[in-house]
């Protein structure tokens, strides 16, 4: 049996995104077609808690799970995107960049229409689970320990204050992480963290770097259907290659010189 679990990563769903996020934005029409493919696949849509329970050995996963995740907190999320998901009975997970959505907050994300933090509880009523996507969206593997701790704890606290319950799941901005970031995420009270990796996850994936597939505007329904079939990408877990490690050292050196940078 193919053990692949596709964890889709969406950003904005809109027709006229700002240029900087356009590559990672799908139109509402393409999005609807993707969701129909998810329904037609016969997979069981779950949120991150279900995968977390399985990876922690607390509960089995339903057969052929699939996850839909949304990063950053763009304005469409509590509106047409939540409607499209709820209309098909699809639960999802939203990772919010608190500095970009809180009143008076600050983040490294360039300007874009964002949802307000005050609508976070509404997302839950639509069947979404809320996770943290840090405060400023910095590249976590380049930060000092103090900066890293603030990104992990302050975003968690802001969401917990708003929702009134624990928020034990994290997504690394742009997926950037390292052994140190993963250990700090665990120490900050997170049970899981999703990365990117451009790979399919699996029922044996690593809790602190769950693989996700970024959906780009150029991806077709055929791409989405291939991933749903467990094809078209490698299956995590697997070790970091030398390129990933070299790229991390390069970015860390640059951050030392220039300060924290936006992670796309
Ligand atoms: Zn992001």
Automatic annotation (TrEMBL):
NodB homology domain location: 64-264
Pfam families per record: Polysacc_deac_1
Keywords: Signal
Database matches in SUPFAM superfamilies: Glycoside hydrolase/deacetylase (SSF88713)
Location relative to the cell: Secreted
Cellular compartments per GO CC: extracellular region
Gene3D superfamilies: Glycoside hydrolase/deacetylase
GO biological-process terms attached to the record: carbohydrate metabolic process
GO molecular function: hydrolase activity, acting on carbon-nitrogen (but not peptide) bonds
InterPro entries reported in the protein's UniProt record: Glyco_hydro/deAcase_b/a-brl, NODB_dom, Polysacch_Deacetylase
Name this polypeptide is given: Peptidoglycan/xylan/chitin deacetylase (PgdA/CDA1 family)
Organism in which the protein naturally occurs: Streptomyces griseoloalbus
């Amino acid at each position: 049996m193919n053990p692949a679990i596709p964890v889709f990563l969406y950003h904005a769903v809109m027709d006229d995104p700002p240029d900087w996020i356009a590559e990672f934005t799908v139109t509402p029409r393409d999005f609807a077609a993707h969701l129909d493919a998810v329904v037609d696949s016969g997979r069981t849509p779950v949120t991150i808690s279900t995968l977390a329970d399985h990876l922690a050995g607390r509960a089995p996963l339903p057969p052929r799970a699939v996850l839909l995740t949304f990063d950053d907190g763009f304005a469409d999320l509590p509106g047409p995107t939540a409607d499209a998901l709820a209309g098909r009975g699809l639960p999802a997970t939203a990772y919010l960049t608190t500095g970009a959505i809180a009143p008076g907050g600050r983040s490294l994300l360039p300007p874009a229409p964002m949802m307000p933090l005050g609508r976070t509880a509404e997302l839950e009523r639509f069947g979404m689970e809320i996770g943290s996507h840090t405060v400023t969206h910095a590249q976590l593997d380049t930060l000092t320990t103090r900066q890293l701790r603030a990104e992990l704890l302050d975003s968690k606290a802001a969401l917990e204050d708003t929702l009134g319950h624990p928020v034990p799941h994290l997504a690394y901005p742009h997926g950037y992480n390292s052994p140190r970031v993963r250990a700090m995420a665990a120490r900050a009270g997170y049970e899981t963290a999703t990365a990117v990796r451009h790979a399919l996850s699996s029922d044996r994936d690593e809790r602190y770097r769950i693989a996700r597939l970024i959906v780009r505007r150029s991806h077709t329904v055929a791409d989405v259907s291939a991933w749903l079939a467990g094809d078209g990408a490698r299956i995590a877990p697997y070790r970091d290659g030398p390129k990933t490690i070299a790229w991390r050292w390069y970015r860390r050196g640059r951050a030392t010189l220039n300060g924290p940078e936006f992670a796309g």
